[in-house]
Design brief:
heterodimer; A: mainly alpha; about 75% helix; about 0% strand; globular; B: mainly alpha; ABC transporter involved in vitamin B12 uptake, BtuC; 11 helices; 2 strands
Protein backbone atom coordinates (compact mmCIF):
# COMPACT_ATOMS: atom_id res chain seq x y z
CA UNK A 1 0.00 0.00 0.00
CA UNK A 2 2.71 2.37 1.05
CA UNK A 3 4.79 1.51 -2.02
CA UNK A 4 1.82 2.06 -4.32
CA UNK A 5 1.20 5.42 -2.71
CA UNK A 6 4.88 6.27 -3.01
CA UNK A 7 4.87 5.32 -6.68
CA UNK A 8 1.76 7.41 -7.26
CA UNK A 9 3.42 10.42 -5.58
CA UNK A 10 6.49 10.01 -7.80
CA UNK A 11 4.36 9.73 -10.89
CA UNK A 12 2.28 12.78 -10.01
CA UNK A 13 5.32 14.95 -9.19
CA UNK A 14 6.93 14.23 -12.56
CA UNK A 15 3.67 14.60 -14.48
CA UNK A 16 2.94 17.93 -12.73
CA UNK A 17 6.45 19.22 -13.49
CA UNK A 18 5.97 18.32 -17.16
CA UNK A 19 2.56 19.97 -17.03
CA UNK A 20 4.26 23.23 -16.01
CA UNK A 21 6.60 23.01 -19.02
CA UNK A 22 3.66 22.09 -21.26
CA UNK A 23 1.78 25.19 -20.06
CA UNK A 24 4.80 27.24 -21.12
CA UNK A 25 4.85 25.60 -24.53
CA UNK A 26 1.11 26.17 -24.85
CA UNK A 27 1.60 29.90 -24.34
CA UNK A 28 4.18 29.86 -27.15
CA UNK A 29 2.63 27.44 -29.60
CA UNK A 30 -1.02 27.25 -28.60
CA UNK A 31 -1.62 30.95 -28.09
CA UNK A 32 1.00 32.61 -30.28
CA UNK A 33 2.00 30.01 -32.85
CA UNK A 34 5.70 30.03 -31.97
CA UNK A 35 7.47 26.80 -32.77
CA UNK A 36 10.00 26.02 -30.01
CA UNK A 37 12.08 22.88 -30.60
CA UNK A 38 14.44 23.71 -27.74
CA UNK A 39 12.19 22.87 -24.77
CA UNK A 40 14.80 20.51 -23.30
CA UNK A 41 17.39 23.29 -23.55
CA UNK A 42 15.37 25.83 -21.55
CA UNK A 43 14.36 23.13 -19.09
CA UNK A 44 18.02 22.28 -18.46
CA UNK A 45 19.04 25.95 -18.15
CA UNK A 46 16.56 26.24 -15.28
CA UNK A 47 17.73 22.99 -13.70
CA UNK A 48 21.42 23.90 -13.82
CA UNK A 49 20.85 27.52 -12.77
CA UNK A 50 19.01 26.47 -9.64
CA UNK A 51 21.60 23.75 -8.95
CA UNK A 52 24.44 26.29 -9.16
CA UNK A 53 22.68 28.72 -6.83
CA UNK A 54 21.62 26.28 -4.12
CA UNK A 55 24.29 23.56 -3.87
CA UNK A 56 26.99 23.74 -1.17
CA UNK A 57 30.27 25.39 -2.25
CA UNK A 58 32.46 23.34 -4.57
CA UNK A 59 36.03 24.53 -5.24
CA UNK A 60 36.17 22.79 -8.65
CA UNK A 61 33.03 24.33 -10.11
CA UNK A 62 31.29 27.59 -10.58
CA UNK A 63 28.92 28.43 -7.80
CA UNK A 64 27.76 26.34 -4.97
CA UNK A 65 26.35 29.47 -3.34
CA UNK A 66 24.21 27.47 -0.90
CA UNK A 67 21.34 29.91 -1.29
CA UNK A 68 17.76 29.05 -0.25
CA UNK A 69 15.86 26.85 -2.69
CA UNK A 70 13.32 29.57 -3.42
CA UNK A 71 16.15 31.83 -4.61
CA UNK A 72 17.35 28.99 -6.84
CA UNK A 73 13.90 28.70 -8.41
CA UNK A 74 13.76 32.41 -8.98
CA UNK A 75 17.24 32.27 -10.51
CA UNK A 76 16.12 29.45 -12.79
CA UNK A 77 13.22 31.56 -14.06
CA UNK A 78 15.49 34.56 -14.63
CA UNK A 79 18.24 32.53 -16.34
CA UNK A 80 15.94 30.76 -18.77
CA UNK A 81 14.21 34.07 -19.42
CA UNK A 82 17.51 35.72 -20.34
CA UNK A 83 18.50 32.89 -22.69
CA UNK A 84 15.02 33.00 -24.23
CA UNK A 85 15.22 36.73 -24.70
CA UNK A 86 18.56 36.45 -26.54
CA UNK A 87 17.27 33.66 -28.78
CA UNK A 88 13.95 35.34 -29.40
CA UNK A 89 15.46 38.72 -30.23
CA UNK A 90 17.55 37.03 -32.94
CA UNK A 91 15.07 34.54 -34.37
CA UNK A 92 11.56 35.92 -33.89
CA UNK A 93 11.95 38.49 -36.63
CA UNK A 94 12.22 35.72 -39.17
CA UNK A 95 10.01 33.11 -40.79
CA UNK A 96 8.26 30.72 -38.39
CA UNK A 97 10.30 27.68 -39.28
CA UNK A 98 13.56 29.54 -38.75
CA UNK A 99 12.60 29.88 -35.08
CA UNK A 100 12.23 26.10 -35.00
CA UNK A 101 15.69 25.61 -36.49
CA UNK A 102 17.29 28.21 -34.20
CA UNK A 103 15.75 26.81 -31.02
CA UNK A 104 16.84 23.37 -32.15
CA UNK A 105 20.39 24.70 -32.49
CA UNK A 106 20.21 26.37 -29.06
CA UNK A 107 19.20 23.08 -27.48
CA UNK A 108 22.13 21.33 -29.20
CA UNK A 109 24.58 23.96 -27.91
CA UNK A 110 23.14 23.87 -24.37
CA UNK A 111 23.51 20.09 -24.44
CA UNK A 112 27.15 20.51 -25.55
CA UNK A 113 27.81 22.90 -22.66
CA UNK A 114 26.09 20.58 -20.20
CA UNK A 115 28.24 17.70 -21.39
CA UNK A 116 31.58 19.47 -21.69
CA UNK A 117 31.82 22.60 -19.55
CA UNK A 118 32.93 20.73 -16.42
CA UNK A 119 33.49 23.89 -14.39
CA UNK A 120 29.86 24.98 -14.78
CA UNK A 121 27.80 21.87 -15.19
CA UNK A 122 29.97 19.06 -13.86
CA UNK A 123 30.18 17.50 -17.34
CA UNK A 124 28.81 14.00 -17.91
CA UNK A 125 28.53 13.31 -14.17
CA UNK A 126 26.31 16.32 -13.65
CA UNK A 127 25.88 18.28 -10.44
CA UNK A 128 25.18 16.35 -7.28
CA UNK A 129 23.72 17.08 -3.84
CA UNK A 130 21.08 19.56 -4.93
CA UNK A 131 19.18 20.32 -1.71
CA UNK A 132 15.64 19.00 -1.28
CA UNK A 133 13.68 21.78 0.38
CA UNK A 134 12.79 21.17 4.08
CA UNK A 135 13.99 17.57 3.91
CA UNK A 136 15.67 17.94 7.31
CA UNK A 137 12.43 19.05 8.95
CA UNK A 138 10.12 16.55 7.26
CA UNK A 139 12.47 13.62 6.76
CA UNK A 140 13.08 11.79 3.47
CA UNK A 141 10.56 9.21 2.36
CA UNK A 142 6.90 9.25 1.49
CA UNK A 143 5.98 12.24 3.61
CA UNK A 144 8.53 14.46 1.89
CA UNK A 145 7.40 13.24 -1.55
CA UNK A 146 3.84 14.18 -0.68
CA UNK A 147 4.99 17.57 0.60
CA UNK A 148 6.89 18.20 -2.64
CA UNK A 149 3.87 17.08 -4.64
CA UNK A 150 1.79 19.68 -2.80
CA UNK A 151 4.36 22.39 -3.60
CA UNK A 152 4.49 21.45 -7.29
CA UNK A 153 0.69 21.27 -7.52
CA UNK A 154 0.38 24.70 -5.88
CA UNK A 155 2.83 26.16 -8.42
CA UNK A 156 1.02 24.43 -11.28
CA UNK A 157 -2.31 25.82 -10.09
CA UNK A 158 -0.90 29.33 -9.72
CA UNK A 159 0.66 29.16 -13.18
CA UNK A 160 -2.55 27.82 -14.69
CA UNK A 161 -4.48 30.68 -13.16
CA UNK A 162 -1.89 33.22 -14.35
CA UNK A 163 -1.75 31.92 -17.92
CA UNK A 164 -5.55 31.60 -18.13
CA UNK A 165 -5.86 35.22 -17.01
CA UNK A 166 -3.18 36.25 -19.51
CA UNK A 167 -4.64 34.57 -22.59
CA UNK A 168 -8.10 35.91 -21.78
CA UNK A 169 -6.77 39.43 -21.28
CA UNK A 170 -6.44 41.95 -24.11
CA UNK A 171 -2.77 40.94 -24.26
CA UNK A 172 -3.76 37.32 -24.96
CA UNK A 173 -6.18 38.40 -27.66
CA UNK A 174 -3.36 40.24 -29.41
CA UNK A 175 -1.30 37.02 -29.36
CA UNK A 176 -4.11 35.16 -31.08
CA UNK A 177 -4.57 37.96 -33.56
CA UNK A 178 -0.87 37.78 -34.43
CA UNK A 179 -1.05 34.02 -34.75
CA UNK A 180 -3.99 34.19 -37.11
CA UNK A 181 -3.04 37.20 -39.20
CA UNK A 182 0.06 39.13 -38.37
CA UNK A 183 -0.53 41.77 -41.01
CA UNK A 184 -3.98 42.60 -39.65
CA UNK A 185 -2.65 42.83 -36.09
CA UNK A 186 0.18 45.11 -37.20
CA UNK A 187 -2.24 47.33 -39.08
CA UNK A 188 -4.15 47.84 -35.80
CA UNK A 189 -0.96 49.18 -34.29
CA UNK A 190 0.13 46.06 -32.41
CA UNK A 191 3.88 45.46 -32.60
CA UNK A 192 3.89 41.76 -33.40
CA UNK A 193 7.60 41.33 -32.68
CA UNK A 194 7.30 42.70 -29.12
CA UNK A 195 4.27 40.55 -28.29
CA UNK A 196 5.87 37.44 -29.72
CA UNK A 197 9.03 38.05 -27.73
CA UNK A 198 7.05 38.51 -24.50
CA UNK A 199 5.13 35.28 -25.06
CA UNK A 200 8.30 33.41 -25.97
CA UNK A 201 10.21 34.59 -22.89
CA UNK A 202 7.29 33.88 -20.53
CA UNK A 203 6.87 30.38 -21.94
CA UNK A 204 10.58 29.61 -21.61
CA UNK A 205 10.52 30.88 -18.01
CA UNK A 206 7.85 28.28 -17.21
CA UNK A 207 10.09 25.62 -18.78
CA UNK A 208 13.07 26.81 -16.71
CA UNK A 209 10.97 26.70 -13.54
CA UNK A 210 9.91 23.15 -14.42
CA UNK A 211 13.58 22.24 -14.85
CA UNK A 212 14.43 23.65 -11.40
CA UNK A 213 11.53 21.78 -9.77
CA UNK A 214 12.80 18.61 -11.44
CA UNK A 215 16.36 19.15 -10.20
CA UNK A 216 15.32 19.67 -6.57
CA UNK A 217 13.09 16.61 -6.60
CA UNK A 218 15.66 14.23 -8.09
CA UNK A 219 18.60 15.74 -6.16
CA UNK A 220 21.06 15.78 -9.08
CA UNK A 221 21.16 16.88 -12.71
CA UNK A 222 23.08 15.24 -15.56
CA UNK A 223 23.10 15.90 -19.31
CA UNK A 224 21.22 12.70 -20.15
CA UNK A 225 18.16 13.99 -18.25
CA UNK A 226 17.64 16.64 -20.93
CA UNK A 227 17.96 14.85 -24.27
CA UNK A 228 15.88 15.92 -27.31
CA UNK A 229 13.43 13.19 -26.33
CA UNK A 230 12.28 15.53 -23.52
CA UNK A 231 11.39 18.23 -26.06
CA UNK A 232 9.47 15.64 -27.98
CA UNK A 233 7.60 14.38 -24.91
CA UNK A 234 6.48 17.91 -23.99
CA UNK A 235 5.30 18.46 -27.56
CA UNK A 236 3.37 15.20 -27.58
CA UNK A 237 1.76 16.20 -24.27
CA UNK A 238 0.59 19.49 -25.73
CA UNK A 239 -0.64 18.08 -29.04
CA UNK A 240 -2.48 15.17 -27.45
CA UNK A 241 -4.00 17.31 -24.72
CA UNK A 242 -5.07 19.98 -27.15
CA UNK A 243 -2.90 22.95 -28.01
CA UNK A 244 -4.45 26.35 -27.35
CA UNK A 245 -6.17 25.09 -24.22
CA UNK A 246 -4.40 25.29 -20.85
CA UNK A 247 -6.52 22.53 -19.33
CA UNK A 248 -5.70 20.45 -22.40
CA UNK A 249 -2.00 21.05 -21.84
CA UNK A 250 -2.23 19.82 -18.25
CA UNK A 251 -4.43 16.85 -19.16
CA UNK A 252 -2.02 15.92 -21.96
CA UNK A 253 0.93 15.98 -19.57
CA UNK A 254 -0.75 13.52 -17.18
CA UNK A 255 -2.10 11.30 -19.97
CA UNK A 256 1.16 11.04 -21.93
CA UNK A 257 3.26 10.56 -18.80
CA UNK A 258 0.87 7.77 -17.77
CA UNK A 259 1.20 6.11 -21.19
CA UNK A 260 4.97 6.55 -21.06
CA UNK A 261 5.35 5.17 -17.50
CA UNK A 262 3.02 2.23 -18.03
CA UNK A 263 4.54 1.22 -21.37
CA UNK A 264 8.04 1.58 -19.90
CA UNK A 265 7.06 -0.53 -16.88
CA UNK A 266 5.49 -3.20 -19.09
CA UNK A 267 8.56 -3.38 -21.32
CA UNK A 268 10.77 -3.76 -18.25
CA UNK A 269 8.57 -6.61 -17.04
CA UNK A 270 8.27 -8.46 -20.34
CA UNK A 271 11.60 -7.92 -22.04
CA UNK A 272 14.71 -9.72 -20.70
CA UNK A 273 17.49 -7.62 -19.18
CA UNK A 274 19.83 -7.85 -22.21
CA UNK A 275 17.23 -6.49 -24.62
CA UNK A 276 16.08 -3.54 -22.48
CA UNK A 277 17.92 -0.88 -24.47
CA UNK A 278 16.29 -2.08 -27.69
CA UNK A 279 12.90 -2.20 -26.02
CA UNK A 280 13.35 1.40 -24.87
CA UNK A 281 14.01 2.37 -28.50
CA UNK A 282 10.77 0.66 -29.50
CA UNK A 283 8.91 2.63 -26.81
CA UNK A 284 10.02 5.89 -28.46
CA UNK A 285 8.95 4.60 -31.88
CA UNK A 286 5.49 3.91 -30.47
CA UNK A 287 5.19 7.42 -29.02
CA UNK A 288 6.32 8.88 -32.37
CA UNK A 289 3.65 6.89 -34.17
CA UNK A 290 1.07 7.97 -31.56
CA UNK A 291 1.88 11.63 -32.22
CA UNK A 292 1.53 11.16 -35.97
CA UNK A 293 -1.78 9.37 -35.49
CA UNK A 294 -3.17 12.15 -33.27
CA UNK A 295 -2.05 14.80 -35.76
CA UNK A 296 -3.81 12.94 -38.55
CA UNK A 297 -6.96 11.76 -36.80
CA UNK A 298 -7.64 14.27 -34.03
CA UNK A 299 -5.62 17.42 -34.74
CA UNK A 300 -7.44 19.34 -32.00
CA UNK A 301 -6.28 16.89 -29.30
CA UNK A 302 -8.35 15.67 -26.33
CA UNK A 303 -9.66 19.13 -25.41
CA UNK A 304 -9.24 21.55 -28.27
CA UNK A 305 -9.03 25.31 -28.19
CA UNK A 306 -12.16 27.15 -27.13
CA UNK A 307 -13.59 29.17 -29.96
CA UNK A 308 -14.48 32.19 -27.87
CA UNK A 309 -12.29 33.07 -24.94
CA UNK A 310 -13.27 36.63 -24.21
CA UNK A 311 -16.28 37.61 -22.13
CA UNK A 312 -16.86 40.47 -24.52
CA UNK A 313 -16.60 38.70 -27.86
CA UNK A 314 -19.60 36.96 -29.29
CA UNK A 315 -22.18 39.09 -27.45
CA UNK A 316 -24.77 40.92 -29.47
CA UNK B 1 46.19 24.99 -40.94
CA UNK B 2 46.02 23.12 -44.26
CA UNK B 3 44.96 20.02 -42.38
CA UNK B 4 42.08 21.92 -40.79
CA UNK B 5 40.96 23.12 -44.22
CA UNK B 6 41.12 19.60 -45.66
CA UNK B 7 39.22 18.12 -42.69
CA UNK B 8 36.65 20.86 -42.98
CA UNK B 9 36.14 20.22 -46.69
CA UNK B 10 35.67 16.48 -46.13
CA UNK B 11 33.05 17.01 -43.41
CA UNK B 12 31.70 19.80 -45.59
CA UNK B 13 31.16 17.54 -48.59
CA UNK B 14 28.98 15.22 -46.51
CA UNK B 15 27.09 18.26 -45.21
CA UNK B 16 26.78 19.62 -48.77
CA UNK B 17 25.16 16.47 -50.15
CA UNK B 18 22.75 16.32 -47.22
CA UNK B 19 21.98 20.03 -47.44
CA UNK B 20 21.22 19.84 -51.18
CA UNK B 21 18.56 17.22 -50.46
CA UNK B 22 17.23 19.28 -47.55
CA UNK B 23 17.10 22.51 -49.54
CA UNK B 24 15.23 20.78 -52.40
CA UNK B 25 12.56 19.28 -50.14
CA UNK B 26 12.37 22.54 -48.16
CA UNK B 27 11.71 24.70 -51.21
CA UNK B 28 9.44 22.28 -53.07
CA UNK B 29 7.39 20.88 -50.21
CA UNK B 30 7.63 24.07 -48.16
CA UNK B 31 8.48 22.82 -44.72
CA UNK B 32 11.63 22.27 -42.65
CA UNK B 33 12.03 18.51 -42.50
CA UNK B 34 13.60 17.56 -39.18
CA UNK B 35 13.62 13.97 -40.40
CA UNK B 36 16.13 14.57 -43.16
CA UNK B 37 19.09 13.59 -40.99
CA UNK B 38 17.52 10.19 -40.40
CA UNK B 39 17.60 9.53 -44.17
CA UNK B 40 21.40 9.80 -43.94
CA UNK B 41 21.42 7.35 -41.05
CA UNK B 42 19.13 4.94 -42.87
CA UNK B 43 21.19 5.21 -46.07
CA UNK B 44 24.35 4.36 -44.15
CA UNK B 45 22.77 1.44 -42.27
CA UNK B 46 20.94 0.03 -45.33
CA UNK B 47 24.22 0.05 -47.23
CA UNK B 48 25.80 -1.76 -44.29
CA UNK B 49 23.01 -4.35 -44.32
CA UNK B 50 23.24 -4.94 -48.08
CA UNK B 51 27.01 -5.15 -47.80
CA UNK B 52 26.63 -7.87 -45.16
CA UNK B 53 24.25 -9.79 -47.45
CA UNK B 54 26.53 -9.44 -50.50
CA UNK B 55 29.67 -10.46 -48.65
CA UNK B 56 27.98 -13.26 -46.66
CA UNK B 57 30.95 -13.46 -44.32
CA UNK B 58 33.65 -13.23 -46.99
CA UNK B 59 36.34 -10.54 -46.87
CA UNK B 60 35.96 -7.49 -49.12
CA UNK B 61 38.92 -7.16 -51.50
CA UNK B 62 39.89 -3.45 -51.61
CA UNK B 63 40.06 -1.61 -54.94
CA UNK B 64 43.48 -0.06 -55.48
CA UNK B 65 44.42 2.32 -52.66
CA UNK B 66 40.92 2.49 -51.19
CA UNK B 67 39.76 0.75 -48.03
CA UNK B 68 36.66 -0.76 -49.64
CA UNK B 69 35.84 -2.95 -52.63
CA UNK B 70 33.18 -3.22 -55.35
CA UNK B 71 30.67 -4.87 -53.00
CA UNK B 72 30.32 -1.57 -51.12
CA UNK B 73 29.39 0.23 -54.35
CA UNK B 74 26.92 -2.54 -55.19
CA UNK B 75 25.43 -2.23 -51.70
CA UNK B 76 25.13 1.53 -52.15
CA UNK B 77 23.28 0.98 -55.45
CA UNK B 78 20.80 -1.24 -53.61
CA UNK B 79 20.49 1.17 -50.67
CA UNK B 80 19.68 4.18 -52.88
CA UNK B 81 16.22 2.97 -53.96
CA UNK B 82 15.59 1.55 -50.48
CA UNK B 83 16.26 4.94 -48.82
CA UNK B 84 14.07 6.63 -51.43
CA UNK B 85 11.33 4.12 -50.63
CA UNK B 86 11.49 5.10 -46.93
CA UNK B 87 11.19 8.78 -47.80
CA UNK B 88 8.24 8.11 -50.11
CA UNK B 89 6.57 5.90 -47.50
CA UNK B 90 6.82 8.57 -44.78
CA UNK B 91 5.55 11.17 -47.24
CA UNK B 92 2.62 8.97 -48.21
CA UNK B 93 1.72 7.97 -44.65
CA UNK B 94 2.20 11.35 -43.02
CA UNK B 95 3.27 14.48 -44.86
CA UNK B 96 0.93 14.29 -47.84
CA UNK B 97 -2.11 13.70 -45.64
CA UNK B 98 -1.18 16.51 -43.25
CA UNK B 99 -0.37 18.94 -46.04
CA UNK B 100 -3.94 18.61 -47.28
CA UNK B 101 -5.51 20.12 -44.18
CA UNK B 102 -2.70 21.47 -42.03
CA UNK B 103 -0.21 24.26 -42.19
CA UNK B 104 3.52 23.94 -42.73
CA UNK B 105 4.27 24.02 -39.01
CA UNK B 106 2.16 20.92 -38.35
CA UNK B 107 4.36 19.19 -40.91
CA UNK B 108 7.44 20.28 -38.96
CA UNK B 109 6.12 18.69 -35.74
CA UNK B 110 5.19 15.57 -37.67
CA UNK B 111 8.69 15.39 -39.17
CA UNK B 112 10.11 15.71 -35.65
CA UNK B 113 8.04 12.70 -34.60
CA UNK B 114 8.93 10.75 -37.73
CA UNK B 115 12.63 11.48 -37.12
CA UNK B 116 12.43 10.10 -33.60
CA UNK B 117 10.62 6.99 -34.75
CA UNK B 118 13.07 6.37 -37.60
CA UNK B 119 16.13 6.93 -35.39
CA UNK B 120 14.93 4.62 -32.66
CA UNK B 121 13.99 2.02 -35.23
CA UNK B 122 17.65 2.01 -36.32
CA UNK B 123 18.64 1.61 -32.68
CA UNK B 124 16.14 -1.20 -32.28
CA UNK B 125 17.38 -3.11 -35.33
CA UNK B 126 21.13 -2.49 -35.26
CA UNK B 127 21.84 -1.49 -31.65
CA UNK B 128 23.84 1.52 -30.51
CA UNK B 129 27.43 0.32 -31.00
CA UNK B 130 29.34 2.03 -33.82
CA UNK B 131 29.82 -0.02 -37.00
CA UNK B 132 32.26 0.21 -39.93
CA UNK B 133 32.07 -0.78 -43.59
CA UNK B 134 35.59 -2.11 -43.46
CA UNK B 135 38.23 -2.71 -40.81
CA UNK B 136 40.94 -2.06 -43.39
CA UNK B 137 43.41 0.48 -42.03
CA UNK B 138 44.30 3.19 -44.47
CA UNK B 139 47.66 4.91 -44.55
CA UNK B 140 47.23 8.64 -45.04
CA UNK B 141 49.26 10.07 -47.93
CA UNK B 142 51.38 13.11 -47.13
CA UNK B 143 50.47 15.64 -49.82
CA UNK B 144 52.20 18.64 -48.30
CA UNK B 145 55.32 18.42 -46.09
CA UNK B 146 55.01 19.36 -42.44
CA UNK B 147 56.93 22.65 -42.72
CA UNK B 148 54.48 24.21 -45.21
CA UNK B 149 51.51 25.60 -43.23
CA UNK B 150 51.53 22.63 -40.89
CA UNK B 151 51.44 20.06 -43.67
CA UNK B 152 48.61 17.94 -45.04
CA UNK B 153 47.87 14.24 -44.81
CA UNK B 154 44.84 12.72 -46.42
CA UNK B 155 43.59 9.18 -47.05
CA UNK B 156 42.60 7.96 -50.53
CA UNK B 157 39.03 7.44 -49.25
CA UNK B 158 38.81 11.07 -48.23
CA UNK B 159 40.06 12.24 -51.64
CA UNK B 160 37.50 10.01 -53.30
CA UNK B 161 34.71 11.47 -51.15
CA UNK B 162 35.69 14.97 -52.27
CA UNK B 163 35.83 13.98 -55.95
CA UNK B 164 32.57 12.04 -55.90
CA UNK B 165 30.75 14.85 -54.11
CA UNK B 166 31.80 17.23 -56.87
CA UNK B 167 30.68 14.73 -59.53
CA UNK B 168 27.28 14.16 -57.88
CA UNK B 169 26.64 17.90 -57.60
CA UNK B 170 27.54 18.50 -61.25
CA UNK B 171 25.24 15.66 -62.34
CA UNK B 172 22.42 17.11 -60.25
CA UNK B 173 23.02 20.53 -61.73
CA UNK B 174 22.79 19.11 -65.27
CA UNK B 175 19.62 17.27 -64.35
CA UNK B 176 17.95 20.36 -62.89
CA UNK B 177 19.05 22.58 -65.78
CA UNK B 178 18.38 20.43 -68.82
CA UNK B 179 15.89 17.61 -68.13
CA UNK B 180 12.16 18.23 -68.34
CA UNK B 181 11.57 16.86 -64.86
CA UNK B 182 14.39 18.96 -63.44
CA UNK B 183 12.95 22.10 -65.01
CA UNK B 184 9.50 21.21 -63.68
CA UNK B 185 11.05 20.89 -60.23
CA UNK B 186 12.65 24.31 -60.39
CA UNK B 187 9.44 25.85 -61.71
CA UNK B 188 7.39 24.27 -58.92
CA UNK B 189 9.82 25.52 -56.32
CA UNK B 190 9.41 29.08 -57.61
CA UNK B 191 5.66 29.13 -58.11
CA UNK B 192 3.59 25.94 -57.71
CA UNK B 193 0.36 27.40 -59.12
CA UNK B 194 2.05 28.74 -62.22
CA UNK B 195 3.98 25.51 -62.74
CA UNK B 196 0.74 23.54 -62.58
CA UNK B 197 -0.78 25.86 -65.20
CA UNK B 198 2.24 25.31 -67.42
CA UNK B 199 1.56 21.58 -67.29
CA UNK B 200 3.95 20.40 -64.59
CA UNK B 201 2.67 17.32 -62.74
CA UNK B 202 3.06 18.61 -59.18
CA UNK B 203 2.54 15.21 -57.51
CA UNK B 204 5.22 13.68 -59.73
CA UNK B 205 7.55 16.58 -58.96
CA UNK B 206 7.03 16.01 -55.23
CA UNK B 207 7.85 12.32 -55.59
CA UNK B 208 10.95 13.12 -57.64
CA UNK B 209 12.06 15.56 -54.96
CA UNK B 210 11.80 12.92 -52.24
CA UNK B 211 13.64 10.36 -54.37
CA UNK B 212 16.50 12.74 -55.20
CA UNK B 213 16.72 14.11 -51.65
CA UNK B 214 16.78 10.62 -50.18
CA UNK B 215 19.35 9.36 -52.70
CA UNK B 216 21.67 12.26 -51.92
CA UNK B 217 21.13 11.65 -48.20
CA UNK B 218 22.00 7.99 -48.68
CA UNK B 219 25.25 8.87 -50.48
CA UNK B 220 26.08 11.43 -47.80
CA UNK B 221 25.40 8.85 -45.08
CA UNK B 222 27.71 6.32 -46.73
CA UNK B 223 30.43 8.98 -47.11
CA UNK B 224 30.02 9.88 -43.44
CA UNK B 225 30.27 6.21 -42.53
CA UNK B 226 33.32 5.73 -44.75
CA UNK B 227 35.23 8.66 -43.25
CA UNK B 228 33.94 8.11 -39.69
CA UNK B 229 31.63 5.77 -37.85
CA UNK B 230 28.16 4.43 -38.57
CA UNK B 231 26.05 5.28 -35.49
CA UNK B 232 22.30 5.66 -34.90
CA UNK B 233 22.88 9.32 -33.95
CA UNK B 234 25.01 10.20 -37.01
CA UNK B 235 22.16 11.76 -38.97
CA UNK B 236 20.72 13.60 -36.00
CA UNK B 237 24.15 15.05 -35.19
CA UNK B 238 24.37 16.31 -38.78
CA UNK B 239 20.94 17.96 -38.70
CA UNK B 240 22.13 21.30 -37.34
CA UNK B 241 24.98 21.56 -39.91
CA UNK B 242 22.51 20.62 -42.66
CA UNK B 243 20.06 23.37 -41.72
CA UNK B 244 22.88 25.87 -41.30
CA UNK B 245 24.20 25.02 -44.77
CA UNK B 246 20.78 25.11 -46.45
CA UNK B 247 19.93 28.51 -44.93
CA UNK B 248 23.41 29.85 -45.61
CA UNK B 249 23.05 29.00 -49.28
CA UNK B 250 19.51 30.31 -49.52
CA UNK B 251 16.60 27.83 -49.37
CA UNK B 252 16.11 26.16 -52.75
CA UNK B 253 19.53 27.09 -54.08
CA UNK B 254 21.46 23.91 -54.96
CA UNK B 255 24.85 25.52 -55.50
CA UNK B 256 24.22 27.66 -52.43
CA UNK B 257 23.69 24.53 -50.35
CA UNK B 258 26.94 23.07 -51.68
CA UNK B 259 28.95 26.19 -50.84
CA UNK B 260 27.04 26.48 -47.56
CA UNK B 261 27.93 22.90 -46.69
CA UNK B 262 31.62 23.51 -47.33
CA UNK B 263 31.58 26.71 -45.26
CA UNK B 264 29.82 24.93 -42.40
CA UNK B 265 32.35 22.10 -42.61
CA UNK B 266 35.21 24.61 -42.44
CA UNK B 267 33.54 26.47 -39.55
CA UNK B 268 33.24 23.22 -37.58
CA UNK B 269 36.80 22.28 -38.37
CA UNK B 270 38.16 25.67 -37.22
CA UNK B 271 36.07 25.45 -34.04
CA UNK B 272 38.27 22.54 -32.94
CA UNK B 273 41.47 24.53 -32.21
CA UNK B 274 39.43 27.45 -30.81
CA UNK B 275 37.06 25.66 -28.41
CA UNK B 276 38.06 22.01 -28.54
CA UNK B 277 36.78 19.04 -30.55
CA UNK B 278 33.80 18.51 -28.26
CA UNK B 279 32.30 21.85 -29.36
CA UNK B 280 32.40 21.16 -33.14
CA UNK B 281 28.64 21.56 -33.48
CA UNK B 282 28.89 25.06 -31.98
CA UNK B 283 30.65 26.10 -35.23
CA UNK B 284 27.53 25.25 -37.22
CA UNK B 285 25.40 27.10 -34.72
CA UNK B 286 27.59 30.21 -34.99
CA UNK B 287 27.24 30.14 -38.79
CA UNK B 288 23.49 29.72 -38.48
CA UNK B 289 23.05 32.61 -36.06
CA UNK B 290 25.35 34.86 -38.09
CA UNK B 291 23.48 34.31 -41.33
CA UNK B 292 20.08 34.69 -39.64
CA UNK B 293 21.14 38.00 -38.11
CA UNK B 294 22.90 39.43 -41.14
CA UNK B 295 21.17 38.03 -44.19
CA UNK B 296 18.30 35.62 -43.46
CA UNK B 297 17.67 34.90 -47.13
CA UNK B 298 21.09 33.30 -47.44
CA UNK B 299 24.30 34.27 -49.19
CA UNK B 300 22.87 33.69 -52.64
CA UNK B 301 19.17 34.19 -51.99
CA UNK B 302 17.23 37.13 -53.28
CA UNK B 303 17.01 40.07 -50.91
CA UNK B 304 13.90 39.94 -48.75
Amino acid sequence: MESALSYLAFFLVFASIFAIATLGLNLQWGATGLFNVGVAGFFSVGAYASAILTTPPDPERLGGFALPVAVGWLGAVVASGIVAWAVGAAALRLRHDYLAITTFGVAVVIQLVALNAQWITGGPFGRQSIPRPLVAEIGAGLLWNLFYLAVVLAILAALYWAFETLVRSPWGRVLRAIREDEGAAESLGKRAMAFRLQAFVLGCMAMGLAGALYAHFVGFVAPEDFLPILTFQIWVMLIIGGSGNNRGAILGAYAVWAIWSVSGGLLREIVPQAEQARAAALQVVLIGVLLAAILLLRPRGLIGEERVVSRHAGQG
Amino acid sequence: MLQLVADGLIVGSVVSLGAVGLTLTYSLLRFANFGHGELLTWGAYLTLAFLGLLLAGAEMAPIGPFSFGWPLLAALMLALPATAAIALAVDWALFRRLARHGNAITLVIASFGAALALRNLVQFIWGTLPEYYTREIQIAIRLVPRDVLGGLRITPDQLLVLALTAAVVVLLHLFLSYSTLGRAMRATAMNPALARLAGADVAKVARATWVIGAALACIAGVFAGLTGQIRPMMGFDLLLPLFAAAILGGIGNVWGAVIGGLIVGLAESFTVPLLGAEYRAAGSFAVLIAILLIRPTGLFGARA
